[in-house]
Specification:
H-NOX domain; 8 helices; 4 strands; binds protoporphyrin IX containing FE; Heme NO-binding domain-containing protein
């Protein structure tokens, strides 16, 4: 997993819960990196799982809800870092339907080691989209947060229903309807 995902996560934890919480979740985890991340480095996904799990235990907030809020925050990081990629689009449905064959393809050119999910377009109309998410990392709620902000970016809103098609969260169906 790319370092930017860790550095932005810890920044958000600091702003929401304070520096003490950052220190606490780092010391409660067994991290090969020691908890020192650089945005351009690459680290094991298991480190993120431990940090998230410990934050969840300390705050009583589920990891899904933590990932949802983190996904919403991460969209602003993408907006700042990759405005050109987002500005290729004028419509949120078109953008979301193009993650797999355009957006994440470009991401892989920048970060060859990126660990990205698979998004399959199952159905698409002008105002609706059914996307199948597949990833061993089960970060579907991070995706949900990014989707919410994608609609906001285009001054729009949507109702998004998430159906777990595999119990472990490695496969999820997103049913997206523009309001
Ligand atoms: C992961 C870039 C848009 C869904 C990532 C990662 C990067 C990235 C750098 C981390 C990869 C790693 O740590 O190895 C981008 C850029 C985007 C974009 C530059 C647009 C400009 C989106 C959108 C979604 C999305 C709109 C909406 C669903 C995800 C998910 C992951 C991810 C769910 C977590 C990894 C996983 O589930 O396996 N993306 N992304 N991305 N991205 Fe994107």
């Amino acid at each position: 997993m790319k370092g930017i995902v860790f550095t932005e996560f810890l920044d958000l934890v600091e702003s929401k819960f304070g520096l003490e919480m950052v220190d606490k979740i780092i010391s409660q985890s067994e991290l090969e990196s020691g908890g020192a991340y650089t945005s351009i480095g690459t680290y094991r996904f298991s480190e993120m799982l431990q940090l998230l799990g410990n934050l969840s235990n300390n705050t009583g907030i589920s990891t899904d809800n933590l990932l949802l809020v983190y996904g919403e925050h991460f969209f602003s990081v993408l907006e700042e870092s990759y405005p050109g990629l987002l500005n290729t689009y004028t419509d949120p449905i078109e953008l979301l339907a193009s993650i797999e064959n355009h957006i994440h393809v470009e991401v892989r050119k920048i970060y060859p080691k990126a660990e990205l999910p698979t998004f399959i377009v199952e159905e698409k109309t002008k105002s609706s989209l059914i996307l199948i998410y597949k990833s061993s990392r089960a970060m579907h709620h991070f995706g949900l947060g990014l989707m919410n902000k994608t609609f906001e970016y285009f001054n729009s809103t949507a109702t998004i229903v998430l159906e777990r098609t595999k119990k472990d969260g490695s496969e999820v169906k997103f049913i997206i309807n523009k309001n």
